[in-house]
Design brief:
Blueprint (H helix, E strand, L loop, with lengths): L21 H4 L7 H11 L5 E5 L7 H7 L2 E5 L3 H11 L4 E4 L13 E7 L7 H11 E14 L3 H14 L9 H9 L5 E11 L1 H9 L10 H17 L3 E13 L3
Parallel strand pairs: 1-2, 1-4, 2-3, 4-5
Antiparallel strand pairs: 5-7, 6-7
Helix pairs in contact: 5-7, 6-9, 8-9
């Protein structure tokens, strides 16, 4: 998506930065099975219909579909959808090229609307209204927000990345509350899930290249130097252990 994505036409695919990141993006760690299971049951269980807004390469959409949900994977970047579709197999995933703010999907058609690591990229007011339109009465809006844990390796890696990019992109304060308010969903329920996964050197390279402030932003030489330093940090800390906490915030529609 990238900075200023709301000013970019959906038709101008050459300007959507994640089209250039899709092959690396798929190497990012997925979501823990217990979190997928929780979202699946919030949606209503087997046969439920879920709209995954900002679905990316399918890190949430694909395991939900394999569990038994029909997932409408809404994503504006065509290459992300291509990568997602290539992994879907026979699972019930429907790729939908659209923005989270205006999906074009039928009203009242979903038991759950999800945003997984996507809140920072959307217009919270418009996306909240779209979620309200999509949800069936009593349906659930769910937001997943991953955050890296503080470990010696990840702290050093974060400093390296920040030094190279000069940017931090957290969700602006109040955006989560605004999203749920516009969707007419309350009260909010917060849950926490933890995940840990060790990445090999090639996969660590891919995850770092998938960051929109690194892969497309740095010169080839600067990126190569950063990846080399990241591998050195991993070796010095006993491996690239990717540890994070994922906040799940959800609420039911009052409709």
């Amino acid at each position: 998506m990238g900075t200023g994505r709301r000013a970019v036409s959906l038709a101008a695919q050459e300007r959507w930065v994640f089209n250039r990141l899709a092959e690396d993006y798929v190497q990012r760690p997925g979501y823990p099975p217990e979190l997928v299971e929780r979202v699946f049951h919030l949606a209503g269980g087997s046969g439920c219909r879920i709209a995954d807004l900002g679905a990316g390469a399918g890190h949430l959409a694909l395991p939900l579909a394999r569990r038994g949900a029909c997932v409408l994977a809404v994503e504006p970047a065509a290459e992300m959808l291509r990568v997602l579709a290539s992994q879907a197999g026979q699972s019930a995933v429907v790729p939908v090229q659209a923005a989270a703010e205006d999906t074009g999907l039928p009203a009242g058609s979903c038991g759950l609307v999800a945003l997984a690591d996507a809140l920072q990229w959307v217009d919270a007011e418009r996306t909240g209204r779209e979620a309200a339109r999509l949800l069936e009465p009593g349906g659930v809006l769910a937001v997943l927000e991953p955050r890296l844990a503080s470990t010696p390796f990840l702290d050093a890696l974060s400093q390296l990345v920040m030094g190279a990019s000069g940017r931090v992109r957290p969700s602006p304060p109040g955006r989560l509350a605004q999203l749920f308010a516009e969707a007419g969903c309350r009260p909010l329920v917060g849950e926490r899930f933890r995940q840990e996964e060790k990445l090999g050197p090639a996969r660590l390279d891919a995850v770092l290249r998938s960051l929109s402030d690194l892969g497309p932003a740095l010169s080839p030489t600067a990126l190569a130097d950063l990846l080399e330093e990241a591998r050195r940090l991993a070796a010095a800390h006993g491996g690239a252990v990717w540890r994070r906490e994922i906040a799940l915030t959800w609420a039911r529609s009052r409709g």
